Amino acid sequence: MKHTVRVASGQGFWGDLLTAPVDQVRKGPIDYLMLDYLAEVTMSIMQKQRARDPNAGYAKDFVALMREILPDCVEKNIKVLSNAGGVNVSGCAAAIQETALELGLSGKVKIGIITGDDILGRLEEFSEKGVEITNMETGEPLEAIRDKVQAANVYLGAGGLVEALGKGAQVVVGGRLTDTGLTLAPLMHEFGWKVDQWDLVSAGTIAGHIIECGAQASGGNCQYDWQSIPDLANVGFPIVEASANGEFIVTKHEGTGGRVNVQSVKEQLLYEMGDPKSYITPDVVADFSSIQLADDGKDRVRVFGIKGNPNTEFYKVSIAYSHGYKAVGTLVYAWPDAYVKAQAADKILRERLDRLGLKFDTILTEFVGVNATHGHLALSSPPVLGGVAAASAGGVVRTHDIPEVQLRIGVRGPNKSDVERFTQELAPLILTGPPAVTGFAGGRPKVEEIMAYFPALIPKHLIETKVDIIEA
Questions:
Q1: If we measure between CA atoms, which residue out of 53, 121, 124, 46 comes closest to residue 85?
Q2: pLDDT (tens digit, 9 = 90+) per residue, 102-145?
Q3: Tens-digit pLDDT profile for residues 156-176
């Protein structure tokens, strides 16, 4: 058994910094590389891709990445764990297998395939068996939106990953694996932690939570003293150095930018946290209130004292369903009276939409530069806007001296044709509305289908996780 296991984060979401996982593999020693590609909306996007092309439905960026780093991983015995398989895990694994063969790595790479999370095709079966699936936030039954469902995926824990590693997998690919499980699994595998050693499993889960969002734990998107964080252009992604007793260090490779300190780790710990005593995952109910943090040198934070409680009998299910259409467009109005012009344009546009008889659930207007981020704030002293002080009265900022204001207006509704008609009404404001307008270079707004989120619970005994191994 190793004394220390180093698990590196290389991807916080699908679309994260492409150089990060390469740097993690090449700029210092690591044992495992975890890559988190999925968010709630991602599965529905992948489901649509696969509907158009049976060979699609996974993060193809992952395949391109493996083409670059797989030889390094084989040479250094770095194992890769990822949920990049989306809704086509076997297709993703086959692409990795083909890539390994093209790289001359025949006989040197085992690929673990974890399936069982995608239950879209089983919803009818569950309904016939009387399994109640309800929105855990609203109590709404699944049947109310059943005909609109685009994707349904169970959040699987670390179990399948541990099994795949135990079978010798160098690369493990799954679908909706939990973000935290990608870090927990290597620690359970290496240290032999049992599934009911709740404090240890909780520690591994919290380690995963800290590094699951990539550089957000190592200086990126950090509020505290952010202007002094060095070299974010070369930001180093976080690494967990874990010990068998459940204690671990959060750090990053030497010579990289960013910063790992108690504050950066604290900020990430607060991400998506509800009840700090009850952070529920498929593997454990982690107690965030037990976490102890201490500086351990430059860019090193020691995490210890973690407690956990038994897991629940349910899996969480992420269900995405169609919920109408939307479009958002912008125009920019210039000084003088930029805000007044933008307000007038908004009024004109709304009157025209009303006259056309278009039906929308919502019309939302924001005036970027005035109230888009925080709304109107009651200010104790005049702010400086565009180099000119703006007066404040009655809790509303007077903004007549702002040099420019972006009118951003969006609509949402059940009828695609009505939303499409809205997109045709924005450009006419350029010559038929207030003066000094610009910012329409992108053309008409794009109509997009809205994916709504339906979180639910399902008994674990109904879900079977399957682990397969293929060789290059």
A1: 46
A2: 999 999 999 999 999 999 999 999 999 999 999 999 999 999 99
A3: 999 999 999 999 999 999 999
* 447 secondary structure, DSSP code: P
Which segments within 305-447 are labelled E, that is strand? Answer: 307-309, 314-334, 362-368, 384-385, 388-389, 392-393, 396-397, 404-413, 437-438
Q: Which 8-state DSSP code applies to residue 143?
A: G
Per-residue pLDDT tens for 244-291?
Answer: 999 999 999 999 999 999 999 999 999 988 899 999 999 999 999 999
pTM (global) more than 0.90: yes
Burial 433-469 (b: 16+ CB within 10 A, else e): bbeebeebeeeebebeeebeebebbbebeebebebee
Q: What are phi and psi of 156, to 5 degrees?
A: -85, 145
| pLDDT value at residue 400 | 63
Give the separation between CA 349 and CA 429, rounded to whole angstroms: 8
Please report the DSSP string for 237-268 in residue order. PPEEEEETTS-EEEE--TT-BS---HHHHHHH
pLDDT at 399: 59
Tally of CB atoms within 10 A around 319:
26
pLDDT tens across 302-324, in order?
999 999 999 999 999 999 999 99
Query: Containing H/E element for 294?
Result: strand 292-295
Q: What is the pLDDT of residue 236?
A: 98
Q: Domain residues of the chain, as ranges?
A: 4-117+155-312, 323-453
DSSP-derived letter for residue 440 is: -
List, in order, residues 6 or more apart from 88 with CB less than 8 Å away: 46, 50, 55, 56, 57, 58
Token pair 């930018």 in the structure block, residue: 257
Per DSSP, what are the bridge partners of residue 7? 32, 240
Measure the CA–CA gap between 467 and 173, rounded to whole angstroms: 10
Tell me the fold of 323-453: Alpha-Beta Plaits (3.30.70)
Percent of the chain with pLDDT over 70: 94
Full DSSP string of 149-173 = EEEEEE-B-SHHHHHHHHTT-SEEE
Report helix, strand or coil for 287.
strand
Given a contact cutoff of 8 angstroms between Cβ atoms, the answer to whether 186 and 248 are in contact is no
254, 250, 210, 207: which is closest to 230 by C-alpha?
254
Asked if 430 and 443 count as a contact pair (C-beta separation under 8 A), the reply is no
